[in-house]
Amino acid sequence: MSAPAFAAVRSIRLSATATLTLGLAVVLMASLALGSNPISPALVVQALLDPASDVDSVVWGSRVPRTLLGIVVGFCLGVAGVVMQGQTGNPLADPGLFGVSAGASLAVVLGAFVLGHNSMTASLFLAMLGALVASVLVFAIATLSRDLANPVPLAIAGTAVSALLGAVISFLVLTNAASLEAYRVWVVGSLSGRGLDGLPPALVVAAVGLVLALLNVRSLNSLTLGTELAQGLGETLWRARLVGLGAITLTTASAVALAGPIGFIGLTAPHIGRALVGGNHCRLLPASGLVGAITLLACDVVGRVIGGQAEVPVGVVLATLGGVAFVVIVRRTKLAAL
Amino acid sequence: MSGRRGVDLRVIALPWRARVLWITLACLAAVLAALTFGIVAGSSRMGVADVWTTLLGAGSRTYQFIVFELRLPRVAAGIGVGLCLGLAGALTQTFSRNPLATPDILGVTSGASAGAVTAIVIGGGGYSVGASLLGFGIPVVATVGGLLAAAVVYGLSWRQGVDSFRLILIGIGVTAILSGLTNYLLVRAQITQATAATQWLVGSLSGVSWASVWPLAVVLAIVLPFALTQSAPLEINQLGDEFSTGLGVAVQRHRTLVIVAAVVLTSAAVSAAGPVEFVAFVAPQVARRLARTARPPLIASALVGAALVTLADVMARAALGTEIPVGVVTAIVGAPYLIWLITRPNLKERA
């Protein structure tokens, strides 16, 4: 590559990094300052530095945990989306594809069906359990097809299992009012009122998932060339798949357990990340994670501001505003295919 | 010009592989069996022989009443909905070259759902806007919503022609927006309206009459033959847009026609029975695996869809006791079968 071209590429990367960092800083501040009780940025900084000040309880008590939650969930979903699309080679693949979201939702609904009511902490653990069980089921089916080289059976098995679990959910929800109540609140996805007692275990699961995703970077890069070339480059296919699937399941499961099935980010953050930094997973993975975190936090803030006391759940804002933004971006940019 | 004529003729006389032919016939037999089963099942007893003599016009007046007035409309609607969804699914998965793409990605389903749920929730709440929406009837509102959403997706994807990949991404965005609205309405609604809306969203054949069957029949009679003429361009387009152009396919025109066909089929099915889940995804996948072809065979996909919906409705009515919406059962019947097909090791997948 000639020197000017190299410099140009580098400047693009620099500007992408700058954009993402700046974006994160802005939404972080907004998320700490805005809400039903707005606080000026100066007071926020003061409260952060001096835990004894007046606004302390709002900032430390509710907004810091909520912001943290948003960053973790958004980042996890963005990363999971990249790994999922890389592993399946399919731009339509979202992290819920392996039955993770459906399994989590079913567990929550079952909990409400059996017990009549779920506490948020109970929902969190149920969701985590359901997500893991469902994805293990999908892997087992895909393994039975004995064709790991091909991502299509995996994607189809995932869709089939998700639909099956979804049917059971519909059945329970239609026959039992308590289940419908639990389900319709859970399924929108929200960062508020999710119990924080479950945060530490979910964080551990998320961290393991993110490490697995990092370990999968090289394989993901060679898999973009197709499975045959990847094998030619020395990739052990079953290991690459196993690490990738582990990363997807753990990151998505913790995100879904913490905030409910938020579908949109995992599907779209990778496409925006690709438009920003290109297809190399070394950069795409963190970029997409950051895009996810920024998007989720920004939408959460918007939901708080426009809703006033009765805030609009982040899943709804995300789907509507995020959907509009995504459509605009897709129309503007030259698309980088997978 | 004579060269182009040759291509056009071949579009119609596409050779059928023997396996595709007999699988299609087997699917047709399955649909007829499901039809018989669907009429037999019910509170008053009827034998298979009674059903067919009545269908062929020679039954007693009681049987004629039971078959033609009570049971056939529902079974016929099931077959019509299944044919529409199966065919629409096969068209979408083929033109987008993506096995995960369903007509939902074209915006029809989410648009129809958003329209219907708005009508149910706001109309049930007694506001005048909602009440007038309900006055048009849910099927009309759903059709209008679906067609509008599809038009928006198509319009936004247009940039010197429609690229399949861009269309899919725009479809994701628009579907997200509409489902966000639907979910918000569900959260804010009274629990009774939320239940009614959920019921519609699952897809159900209870309450269909001949009036819901005729639109399906008309749509199928127009779109099915037309879709078959697009079979050869679809086959060629598997090689990519450049190849197709080189081989004389007018890619943009062909793609627009296929999309319109899929949208109209889906919209007809959704307005008749609500968004019956999973059929448009599973029918082409099953048909393709049975026929062992590289892309879903169109007629067989439609027939698999019809057999699936009819069978699922019979199970929902008879086997499970209480009346369960058909959309719940389609996945319970279809998913295990697809999973079984996937796990059979002798059927290697071709991407």
TrEMBL record, chain A:
One cellular component (GO) term of this entry: plasma membrane
Family per record: Belongs to the binding-protein-dependent transport system permease family. FecCD subfamily.
The keyword Signal is annotated on this UniProt entry: no
InterPro entries, per database record: ABC_BtuC-like, ABC_transptr_permease_BtuC
Pfam families: FecCD (PF01032)
Positions of transmembrane segments: 67-84, 96-116, 122-142, 154-178, 198-217, 284-306, 312-330
Compartments where found: Cell membrane
Membrane association type: Multi-pass membrane protein
Top-level division of the source organism's lineage: Bacteria
One BP term from GO: siderophore-iron import into cell
Keyword list, A-Z: Cell membrane, Membrane, Transmembrane, Transmembrane helix, Transport
Gene transcribed to yield this protein: fepD
A molecular-function term among this protein's GO annotations: transmembrane transporter activity
Predominant location category: membrane
Alphabetized Gene3D superfamilies for the sequence: ABC transporter involved in vitamin B12 uptake, BtuC
Protein name according to UniProt: Iron-enterobactin transporter subunit membrane component of ABC superfamily
From TrEMBL, chain B:
Pfam family, one: FecCD
Any GO BP: siderophore-iron import into cell
Hydrolase among keywords: no
Top-level taxon of origin: Bacteria
Annotated membrane topology: Multi-pass membrane protein
Keyword annotations from UniProtKB, A to Z: Cell membrane, Membrane, Transmembrane, Transmembrane helix, Transport
Alphabetical list of CDD domains matching this protein: TM_ABC_iron-siderophores_like
GO molecular function terms noted in the UniProt entry: transmembrane transporter activity
GO cellular component: plasma membrane
The protein's name: Iron complex transport system permease protein
Organism per entry: Micropruina glycogenica
